[in-house]
């Protein structure tokens, strides 16, 4: 029987598979969900494959001994640096460390006062050395002759030298007597300071051939310390006998020092440092200035094409450029690299004159001090380091120190 009512119609549509609007939307949503699940499944699978590849690559890298060693070194360095340790400390402990730093700054200022008193002590003992150095000058220049007692000296190899001398005397005694009558007895010790310049590499590198005749007139080198109450400094005085080159009886070079902690970096203080130097004017006689040279240069006129020859003076390499140093700028302007290195070398030479050459001149003349320097290995136990030596610390501004420690060739003043 055919049912024609509403219920019968619904039954018929259901039997025939007819779908209403609500059921159609549900079917579409289910299909979309299915696609989303498939896409998600694909993404998960792809991510899993990528992860597997990374794990395999990581395993291969970690099996490399060099990679492992580099990683370990980095970890060691990171974990053991003092700064990283300090960062881990409690705030109260860091506060106490800051207090220690304040104490350290006060210690630096006390140390600066100590070095100022050392400078005063140097001045005091320089006065005690002065009579001895004056007598040394008299013996060198021939102004005085040492007595037998003053000239008595026993060398380590005296017996061997005596035997050798006796044998030689038997052969050449007559020749010596003849030479003594023909040749005048030389005055003093000829070329004393010039010989020291030749013996010391640091100095001989600065001396040109045309400097040598002038240096043979050098009679004395003195060190003068600043007076009490004046800024810390020392001066070198080079005393010359009458010569054909300049009229000055002596030439001076003054080195200025500072003995106080830097306000911005007080912990870097290690003693006085040379901060500047001043030379002097040399009154050269006409045509005798060895610090310049005259050159001829041809010039062509742009319009007429004529050529003329002009002469001009240009700087010349010479030891006497030592008395015309580069000026340290007071306005904070930095020097170029070559100028910094030249100035650092200048400071080092001035310090070497003060601490080595002047106090031990005779040993540099004979070469004994040079042999001692050659036999001495820096850094070995037993290094002779006096308060006087450590006081100046061979110090100079950090930028200059770095320049001086480089392996560059020392540029001369005329190259700057």
From TrEMBL:
It is found in: Nucleus. InterPro entries: NAP-like_sf, NAP_family. This is Nucleosome assembly protein 1-like 4 isoform B. Belongs to the nucleosome assembly protein (NAP) family. The keyword Transcription regulation does not apply. It comes from Alligator mississippiensis. GO terms for biological process: nucleosome assembly. One of its GO terms (cellular component) is nucleus. Residues 1-60 are annotated as: Disordered. It holds the Pfam family NAP. Keywords: Nucleus. Residues 24-33 have a biased composition (Polar residues). It comes from the Eukaryota.
């Amino acid at each position: 029987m055919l049912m024609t009512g509403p219920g019968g119609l619904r039954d018929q549509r259901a039997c025939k598979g007819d779908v209403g609007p609500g059921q159609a939307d549900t079917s579409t949503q289910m299909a979309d969900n299915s696609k989303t699940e498939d896409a998600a499944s694909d993404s998960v699978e792809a991510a899993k494959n990528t992860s597997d590849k990374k794990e395999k690559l990581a395993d291969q890298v970690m099996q490399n001994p060099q990679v492992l060693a580099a990683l370990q070194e980095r970890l060691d360095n990171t974990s053991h640096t003092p700064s990283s340790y300090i960062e881990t400390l409690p705030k109260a402990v860091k506060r106490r460390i800051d207090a220690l730093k304040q104490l350290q700054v006060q210690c630096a200022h006390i140390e600066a006062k100590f070095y100022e008193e050392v400078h005063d002590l140097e001045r005091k003992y320089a006065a005690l050395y002065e009579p001895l150095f004056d007598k040394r000058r008299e013996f060198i220049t021939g102004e005085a002759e040492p007595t037998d007692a003053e000239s008595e000296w026993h060398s380590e190899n005296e017996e061997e030298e005596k035997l050798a001398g006796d044998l030689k005397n038997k052969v050449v005694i007559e020749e010596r007597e003849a030479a003594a009558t023909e040749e005048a007895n030389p005055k003093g010790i000829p070329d004393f300071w010039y010989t020291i310049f030749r013996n010391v590499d640091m100095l001989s590198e600065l001396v040109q051939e045309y400097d040598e005749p002038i240096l043979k007139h050098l009679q004395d080198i003195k060190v003068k310390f600043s007076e009490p109450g004046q800024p810390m400094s020392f001066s070198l005085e080079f005393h010359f006998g009458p010569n054909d080159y300049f009229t000055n009886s002596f030439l001076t070079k003054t080195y200025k020092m500072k003995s106080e902690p830097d306000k911005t970096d007080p912990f870097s203080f290690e003693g006085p440092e040379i901060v500047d130097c001043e030379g002097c004017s040399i009154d050269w006689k006409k045509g005798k200035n060895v610090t310049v040279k005259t050159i001829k240069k041809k010039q062509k006129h742009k319009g007429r094409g004529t050529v003329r020859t002009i002469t001009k003076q240009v700087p010349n390499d010479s030891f006497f450029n030592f008395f015309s140093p580069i000026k340290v700028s007071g306005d904070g302007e930095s020097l170029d690299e070559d100028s910094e290195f030249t100035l650092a070398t200048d400071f080092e030479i001035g310090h070497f004159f003060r601490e080595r050459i002047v106090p031990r001149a005779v040993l540099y003349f004979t070469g004994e001090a040079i042999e001692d320097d050659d036999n001495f290995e820096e850094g070995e136990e037993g290094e002779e380091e006096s308060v006087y030596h450590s006081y100046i610390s061979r110090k100079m501004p950090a930028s200059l120190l770095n320049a001086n420690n480089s392996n560059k060739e020392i540029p001369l003043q005329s190259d700057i």
